[in-house]
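User: Structure tokens for this complex, please. No commentary.
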Amino acid sequence: MKIAIASGKGGTGKTTVAVNLALALGNAQLLDCDVEEPNCNLFLGFDLEKQEDVTITVPEVDSEKCSLCGKCAEFCQYNAIAKLSSSIMLFPKLCHGCGGCVLVCPENAITEEKRSIGIIEKGTDEHFNIELLQGTLNIGEPMASPVIRQLQAHIDESTVAIVDSPPGTACPVIASVAEMDYCVLVTEPTPFGLNDLALMVDLVRQLDVQFGVVINRHGIGDARVEDYCRAERIPILMKIPNDREIAVLYSKGIPFVEQMPLWKENFRELYRYICKFISYQGGF
Amino acid sequence: MKICVTASNSGLEASVDPHFGRCKYFVLVDSKSMEFESIENGQGSASGGAGVQAAQQVIGKGIDVLITGSVGPNAFSLLSSEGIEMKIFSSGSVIEAIRAYEFGSLESIDSANSPGKSKM
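Assistant:
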């Protein structure tokens, strides 16, 4: 079972829901796919061990063989190769690693080299009984998706995997959510929350991933998120109140299910609902 | 000498577009005869690498001087390695930019002065 926790808007509580859900279930994998700013471990404090580098392939041109025909530059859809009067210039950070330039080069002058863009780390803890997998994109690198895909290759299909997605609705979010069995959309009951929730709903519908909504900080703002969900027939899975005790625990970096047993049960109930929903849909 | 000015429209009266990679038009002017040619920037709305494409387009036209507002890092590498002189002019018309260049009152672009998108 693979569940993504996503939201269009940042700061709605994706990490809060992901960490607390994983802890409430136990014996689960938690994948921090927000590789530009992974933060699940702020609430867990695991010792992480590096598993591997994430690499992408980029072209290298042998200037002895190159005839400056310019076919590679013409082919590249990402403008990562430019032909100058006496050389070829490469822009590795624009390269998506498709390998097309290697195929179109008539002189066999292009080879592919590996370039590291990030790392995968893992940590476990006996007390918490979950496994944290974290991807980190190197500073200055523009492409998060390859790190996310490689991180998700570590998913153990025999257990429950909770994926903490990055915010927004762009490529890294698609890479995080596309292969999931279910997606929990976390929002807040504010106009911003509603706007970005609606964008995210469009996205998950196109990806054909089943989804429901968790409203965080319930009690602030207005009822428009709930009205929207009702009108769109989207299940509201949980409402987390705008509660002082939860906020205080959050500010201390303590996952609130650890101190509020009722919420542990609420998150388990949320999971049971998702399982039932998916089996009803014929997913299992 | 062939001078390229980035513009928001075609012709000498068009206003200068200050963004090199994503400008609408390149107006190529022969400074002796004042004959000119306007070409569209084919990659003005590319999702990435617009500057790389734009640079290749104007390099292919054999320009000596580029007048624009800002140049990103990738385009700067390409233009400078072809020895193209880059000058700043960000508000006014193409013809005003050419006159200001000939008068010698334009500042040079000595390094990328726009962050670009790829943050290299």
